[in-house]
């Protein structure tokens, strides 16, 4: 993807979206998508979408804030969490704070965007930001997400002088292809997705997955089947707008499903995908210096010619996978376990760049290991966002059987089969 497209140094920033990674990344991305559709992609600034690779970001951020028509401050329920004096917002060098202060000091219009009951309190804010409590805010509610996001865009178009008449200008200048930053895809298998109403396409499988709660939902509830879910996933590309090749995935899904969604939107087709991972946007277009080669450990099985692969990030599933392969009589010659060089733990992948680099490193390692194998059996134990990025890169390999941890006596169950 050309990160410079529509974002040249002299491009005019009209709307600057300020948000806290870990608090409002998903809402910020949805706002960016809607506002790009209204005002043009070059006119809306969101850091990971708008900063050119290799640029010194500090002067870019300052100049964009000073030149914008309005700064939106996205505030979620964790924006002011923590002990006063020890939070990121209490640090004068914190960029969320610096952007807001820069706008206030230069008399730029600032609109707090409060999500689903979030509130601002002067006694919880640094003195420099106390003025936020005196500004007219806009509230976005989860149950009315689509209406409220559209309503915010309408209000900006009416009330911000430099945005009046901009929708027509965006269509004329950018054309329909660039009118919106990305499509929104909602996939809900564990719990209802509050973003579904805003999505360009939504899959709601919550009532078709077995289990009384999100923690227990792991396999389809009869008569629903994995094959039916895969058919719905494979239909996703045709259900999304064909003129937008970037897709934001929202909702709740386990790793095999996330991998299959990434596989349906594979990079080789020209698509890009993104997902909020613990409040930080992980995107396939995220730049990195070089692929992150995984640590590979091989275990001989000798029951056939296939290759088994485990992605061991959060935990090491080796013992469970070997036991499942043996009990299930899978025709596997060996198991290759791939893990980060930093070790196996919950936070082993701690950034979008590391996730993208590790996904490519794993894909490359599997290509090499599977050179003489007729099929691959894949077991995933890591962040859902990593599974999406890995599936997105899964090409030039072998037909791949993807397994889900269903917490049964044998742990795993075959979920999907992807051609690769």
From TrEMBL:
Pfam families (alphabetical): SAVED, TIR_2
GO process terms (BP): signal transduction
SUPFAM superfamilies (UniProt xref): Toll/Interleukin receptor TIR domain
Top-level division of the source organism's lineage: Bacteria
Domain TIR: 11-149
Name the record gives this protein: TIR domain-containing protein
Protein source organism: Actinophytocola oryzae
């Amino acid at each position: 993807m050309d990160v410079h497209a529509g974002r040249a140094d002299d491009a005019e920033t009209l709307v600057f979206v300020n948000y806290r990674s870990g608090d409002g990344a998903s809402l910020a991305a949805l706002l960016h998508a809607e506002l790009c559709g209204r005002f043009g992609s070059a006119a809306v600034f969101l850091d990971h979408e708008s900063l050119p690779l290799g640029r010194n970001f500090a002067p870019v951020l300052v100049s964009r804030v000073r030149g914008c028509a309005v700064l939106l401050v996205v505030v979620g329920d964790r924006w002011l969490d923590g002990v006063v004096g020890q939070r990121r917002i209490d640090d004068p060098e914190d960029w969320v704070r610096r952007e807001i202060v820069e706008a206030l000091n230069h008399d730029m219009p600032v609109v707090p965007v409060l999500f689903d009951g979030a509130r601002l309190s002067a006694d919880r804010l640094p003195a420099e930001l106390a003025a936020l409590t005196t500004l007219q805010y806009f509230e976005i509610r989860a149950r009315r997400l689509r209406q409220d996001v559209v309503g915010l865009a309408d209000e900006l178009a009416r009330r911000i002088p430099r945005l009046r008449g901009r929708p027509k200008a965006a269509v004329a200048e950018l054309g329909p292809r660039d009118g919106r930053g990305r499509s929104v895809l909602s996939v809900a298998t564990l719990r209802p997705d509050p973003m579904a109403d805003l999505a360009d396409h939504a899959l709601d499988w919550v009532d078709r997955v077995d289990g009384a709660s999100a923690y227990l939902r792991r396999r389809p509830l009869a008569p629903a089947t994995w094959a039916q879910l895969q058919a719905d996933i494979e239909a996703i590309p045709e259900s999304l707008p064909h003129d937008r090749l970037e897709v934001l995935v929202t909702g709740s899904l386990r790793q095999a499903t996330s991998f299959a969604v990434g596989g349906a939107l594979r990079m080789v087709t020209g698509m890009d995908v993104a997902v909020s991972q613990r409040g930080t946007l992980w995107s396939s277009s995220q730049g990195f210096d070089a692929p992150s080669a995984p640590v590979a450990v091989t275990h001989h099985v000798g029951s056939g010619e296939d290759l088994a692969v485990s992605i061991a990030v959060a935990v090491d599933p080796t013992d469970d996978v070997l036991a499942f392969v043996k009990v299930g009589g899978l025709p596997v010659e060996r198991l290759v376990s791939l893990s980060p060089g930093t070790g196996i733990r919950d936070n082993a992948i701690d950034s979008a760049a590391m996730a993208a680099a590790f996904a490519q490193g794993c894909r490359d390692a599997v290509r090499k290991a599977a050179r003489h194998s007729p099929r691959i059996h894949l077991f995933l134990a890591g962040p859902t966002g990593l599974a999406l990025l890995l599936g997105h890169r899964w090409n030039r390999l072998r037909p791949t059987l993807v397994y889900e941890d269903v917490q049964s006596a044998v742990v795993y169950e075959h979920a999907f089969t992807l051609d690769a």
